[in-house]
Amino acid sequence: MSTEREKQIAAEAAARMVDDSMTVGLGTGSTVAYLLPALAARALDIRCAATSPRTEEAARALGLEVEPFVDIDRFDLAIDGADQIAPDGWLVKGGGAAHTREKIVAAAADRFVVIADSTKPVRALRPPVPLELLAFGLRATVRHLGRLGTVTFRDVPRSPDGGVIADYTGPVDDPAALAAALAATPGVVAHGLFPAEMVATVFVGRGEQVDRTDLVH
Ligand code: 5RP
Prior knowledge:
Layout: H1 3-15, E1 23-26, H2 32-41, E2 47-50, H3 53-61, E3 75-80, E4 84-85, E5 91-92, H4 99-107, E6 109-117, E7 129-133, H5 138-145, E8 151-153, E9 164-168, H6 175-183, E10 188-191, E11 193-194, E12 201-206, E13 209-214
């Protein structure tokens, strides 16, 4: 079964969690691209905010009401993809370079729901871990990060917030310790390690069925 079909059925399962009057955070990526039509087809009365300009544009084109994430202070649900899902629920995100906004939206959600195909669950998280870095002091930040591991720049445009997109490519032996060390480095705007405590539910498409895991915190 194709991973595209797995993404689609995982996304459709998550879309069914949305009810009328909810505020919904929309993630970014090829799996979320299946979520948007599934959500639009339900014709619910919902308010959405998007984690990237491309999601915002795609959602609006489908008739979803997307507001700037300025006046909304919380979401009932946020739904997003992931690059890697560890058995304990830790994630690596940011393959699409949207991890800064994605993390803010996930943290503002009562329930953060992850949608993925069967290639995303891994036995242990591994590099690369996406980074967004402030352009100010960039070389000094990278030198500072060198104590943890190597950093490579991605050949992509800056984030919508002006950040430089890079990847940490050193070891990921202890995700919590690495997340703390990355977050404590001045100049790091955000990193792509998302703690399990942030995650409520994971839908993984496997063949023609969807595995649902609800994390208990
Ligand atoms: C974007 C992300 C995506 O959610 C992640 O890269 C998964 O993408 P896809 O659904 O295309 O596999 O974090 O920054």
